[in-house]
Amino acid sequence: MTVKARKSIKISKSKVSEILKDYQLACESREASLLGRKEVFMGKAKFGIFGDGKELPQIAMAKAFRNGDFRSGYYRDQTFMFAIDQLTIQQYFAQLYAHTDVEKEPASAGRLMNGHFATRMLDEKGQLKDLVNHKNSTADISPTAGQMPRLLGLAYASKLFRGNKDLHQYDGLSINGNEVAFGTIGNASTSEGMFYETVNAGGVLQVPMVISIWDDEFGISVPKEFHTTKGSISKVLAGFQRTKKEDGYEIFVVKGWDYEALIDTYQKAAKLSREQHVPTIVHVIEVTQPQGHSTSGSHERYKTKDRLAWELEYDCNAQMRKWILSEGLCGEDALIEIEKQAVLTAKDAKNKAWKDFTADLKEDVNEVISIVGSIAENSQYKNELTAIKESLASTVNPIRMDAMRIAKKVLRIVKSEEGNGKETLKGWLKKSAALNWDRYNNFLYSEYESSAMNVEVIPAKFNNESSQVDGREVLQACFDAALSRDPKVFAFGEDVGKIGDVNQAFAGLQDKYGDLKVTDTGIRECTIIGQAIGASLRGLRPIVEIQYLDYLLYALQTLSDDVACLQYRTKGGQKAPLIVRTRGHRLEGVWHSGSPMGMILHSLRGMYVLVPRNMTQAAGFYNTLLQSDDPALLIECLNGYRLKESIPENIGEFTVPLGVPDTLRTGDDITIVTYGSMCRIVMEAADQLAQEGISCEVIDVQTLLPFDIGHTIVESLKKTNRIAFVDEDVPGGASAFMMQKVLEEQNGYRYLDSKPLTISAHEHRPAYSSDGDYFSKPNVEDVFDKVYELISEATPGQFPEIY
Ligand SMILES: Cc1ncc(C[n+]2csc(CCOP(=O)(O)OP(=O)(O)O)c2C)c(N)n1
Ligand SMILES: [Mg+2]
């Protein structure tokens, strides 16, 4: 539906005042953009990207945005954030300068480029605030369209809150699902696969989300015909339009400079989404970008003269001004006054932000200048130190790094001197290291009481009659207990609902708990994860399934860019404690037996990565995670569902701690470190080695992130003096990761009598069939041979060559 401006009718006085306030905000936001660009060019900030040209659509969207609603958007949305009162112009500049004080820059505490918006959804204890009384923005990321999967989940949560009566008690999280998730995206970014995946899933699920596309016809320098079929995303999406007979989207098209039509459109779209849970798309066309894409270049390079002239004329602020005057809402003098004030307001906010930012930095610099000054007084290097001190004092706009470099330089110069007061400088270095850790590096994982690392350990209890069941039944009992214990827990994924997943760990649980608790989804790994991100941001506890580990790649970008860095990039302001359940390691062929652990470890720092050897350990991990606020990936052993295990009596309560290895076998000659399905293979090899008189200590690390937090492996190495790291990843993958941890971090190198060994799969993907598996992944004989060879090398007389 194309919304056009309505024919003028008389506008009331209070409406006029609202309109003028909107115009004022549009002008202030524009001034912030103009000033921001200048600040970058003056060298006061490194990069800038601004929301100029999008002021009116965002003001209109903000009018439809209520307490309890959520935004998942991108870098152009400053005006919206101002309009919902979740960002001040001063905070906006604090982010541009990268002020690390969370009070001054609440979105990311200076960790992200400007234009990355977020509200603080957690209180100081890490618990969710009552989100229904706040206007919420989830934390932006830079990868274009990366905000879309999360948007789906934010909207999906409303569906759960509305449909699942057991959730109605959480009235701080939702009011019966009446909340809308607002997404924004640039026109060019709609070319990304995850945009289409999200749109399709939203239409299938019928969730309350309003997707706005700010269409300026460009993606940096590339015009629309390179991006979008027919040059129009609403034309492309026309098949999603709902009809009387079929669900789908309500699609609106509106001009980005038409104030009245924009307001009308957003009211309609939000009402439909909020009340009827119909997803809507607002394609905002004829949008301009007055300053071009970002501070990286100027748009004169790629826009035609005609386009530039058109953009000048159809600049939304200019059009609003024209409209106000043509409607006779006020005289031009009043508008000129508003415009003048806007310049002052933005400038004043900018100046305050700069003053705060530099004052913070100057503390460091002044302290170092003063300490170096007093060291110089008592040093034979007085002249050199004084010159260094003065160079720091005369640095224009010094930053922390300048102070740190000078401090280290000075300590190097005076390293052989005593009694010159250099201890004070060493103390400063130590204090700064801690502060800078806090400023730039903390909150990779939860640092709150509810961290997964603080969960009480409750051992599994077995009695003599503990029955032996299939591994999958252990999980089934665990999930059954979790679903009945906590209304916020729910599970979904491909084939999880009706058949209870391809290995039946949820068998029968949809019948028992309903299809909102145990749910099938389409085949769309990326948005399955997005669905879980959004829901967990809103306080729910999804256990979300990626059917096979090999298909995690489809979701890896979202896991890496959105989930894993969420707590870090908001400095503990938001959390998404989703549990990703998948199955992998040993089975058959290229896409059903992968173990790409290096890939996972290197891309998912910020999530915990758990690799239990059996389903009982897995169940204990699920119980631990469900009590904590960290996101995690748990990889079950594909070939373990039919193996018999004893089921613990306390299946719903027992917990397995993270970062604590399990010694499966004690021995004296070599320590073998492994995990997952390789545990059984290594144990069999250890049996065979024992028959040859070689005694192996076998350690299951159980979790790769975190890794052996108590440094227990090195204790084993102290005894055996030899070590092997065994897994199914490629060479240099997770085996190398484990080796670095033990030999370098735990100082294990000191205790080695032989070279450290890694035993891994071949460099290619695993071959199909039992023989394929045997010849491409490490097998019992491989482990035997490599360990035997190592021991034989050290003591040849005792262990003669075999082959
Ligand atoms: C995945 C990814 N690819 C490339 C980029 C670099 N990049 C940043 S913005 C942008 C253009 C986006 O254009 P559009 O979606 O139309 O938004 P606009 O900036 O025009 O509002 C590109 C290519 C990125 N951030 N992420
Ligand atoms: Mg664009």
Describe the fold and architecture:
The N and C termini lie far apart (78 Å). Helices cover 43% and strands 11% of the residues. It is built from 27 helices and 22 strands. The longest helix has 46 residues, at 332-377. With 803 residues, it is α/β, with parallel strands linked by helices. Strands 11-10-12-13-15-14-20 form a seven-stranded mixed sheet, sandwiched between helices. The site of thiamine diphosphate (TPP) has 14 residues, from β5.
- Mean of the pLDDT scores? 96
Bound molecules: thiamine diphosphate, magnesium ion
Secondary structure tally, helices: 27
Class computed from helices, strands and strand pairing: alpha/beta
Low-pLDDT ranges: none
Fraction of helical residues: 40-55%
Radius of gyration: 30 Å
Number of strands: 22
Tell me the layout of helices and strands.
Blueprint: H1 13-41, H2 55-64, E1 70-72, H3 78-83, H4 89-97, E2 136-137, H5 147-163, E3 181-186, H6 193-205, E4 209-214, E5 218-219, E6 222-223, H7 224-227, H8 233-236, E7 250-255, H9 259-276, E8 280-285, H10 305-313, H11 316-326, H12 332-377, H13 382-393, H14 400-413, H15 422-440, E9 468-470, H16 471-485, E10 489-493, H17 509-513, E11 518-520, H18 525-537, E12 541-546, H19 553-563, H20 566-569, E13 579-584, H21 597-603, E14 608-610, H22 615-625, E15 632-637, E16 644-646, E17 662-665, E18 670-674, H23 678-691, E19 696-700, E20 703-705, H24 713-720, E21 723-726, H25 734-745, E22 757-759, H26 769-776, H27 780-794
Parallel strand pairs: 1-2, 1-3, 3-4, 4-8, 7-8, 10-11, 10-12, 12-13, 13-15, 14-15, 18-19, 18-21, 21-22
Antiparallel strand pairs: 5-6, 9-16, 14-20, 17-19
Helix pairs in contact: 1-4, 1-11, 1-12, 2-9, 4-12, 5-6, 5-18, 12-13, 12-14, 12-15, 13-14, 14-15, 16-22, 18-19, 23-27
Thiamine diphosphate binds at residues 76, 142-144, 186-189, 214, 216, 218-220, 293.
